[in-house]
C-alpha cells in the first residue's frame, strides 16, 4: 500500500525529468522599448536612496540604540 502511494507521488516528477519541456522560448537581442536616460537616472536615484535610508537612520540614532552610559 505504501509502495503504491510513493510510486504515485514520484511518477510525475520522474516523467518530467525524462521529457523535455517544449513550451520554452528565449528571445535575445536589443530591447524593443527604449528607456530614456532621465528615467534611468531617476530610477537609480530612487534605488540608491531606498538602499541608504535605513543605514543612515541607524547611524543618526546610534546613541539612542546604545542607551545611556
UniProtKB/TrEMBL annotation:
Q: What residue ranges are annotated as transmembrane?
A: 41-60
The UniProt entry's GO CC annotations, sorted and at most eight, read:
mitochondrion
Q: Supply the alphabetized keyword list.
A: Membrane, Transmembrane, Transmembrane helix
What highest taxon heads this organism's lineage?
A: Eukaryota
- Which GO terms of type biological process are on file? mitochondrial electron transport, cytochrome c to oxygen
Q: InterPro entries under this entry?
A: Cyt_c_oxidase_su8 (IPR003205)
Supply the name of the protein: Putative cytochrome c oxidase polypeptide viii
Q: Which organism does this sequence originate in?
A: Tabanus bromius (Band-eyed brown horse fly)
Amino acid at each position: 500500500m505504501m509502495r503504491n502511494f510513493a510510486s504515485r507521488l514520484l511518477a510525475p516528477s520522474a516523467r518530467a525529468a525524462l521529457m523535455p519541456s517544449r513550451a520554452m522560448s528565449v528571445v535575445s537581442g536589443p530591447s524593443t522599448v527604449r528607456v530614456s536616460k532621465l528615467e534611468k537616472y531617476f530610477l537609480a536615484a530612487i534605488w540608491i536612496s531606498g538602499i541608504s535610508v535605513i543605514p543612515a537612520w541607524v547611524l543618526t540614532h546610534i546613541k539612542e540604540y546604545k542607551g545611556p552610559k
